[in-house]
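<goal> How does this chain fold?
<sample>
Here is the protein in question

***
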Amino acid sequence: MLTDATTELIDERALSKLKWRCRRGLLENDLFIERFFARHEQSLTLFQAEGLRQLMELADNDLLDLFLARKEPEGEQDRPDVRAVLAMLRVPV
């Protein structure tokens, strides 16, 4: 069976590293990220993990602006994987 990044699930070791990478300085960002992992940890794909890694490259305030839909991804962040994860992160409680 062929798999690709959009369907292949992230393994436990990579998930652990990703969670570590997602720790942020702003509590508000941490709350969005914790909720994301609570909802999607068991079904997170490589595609989604890469989108989340890209978001973690941003400064905390820029990241919060994206989470709160005050702005949309631009430049290097304007990618399908980032937009997909951002949509998942923005789903209300």
Observations:
- The CA atoms of residues 57 and 63 lie 9 Å apart.
- DSSP finds five helices and no strands in the chain.
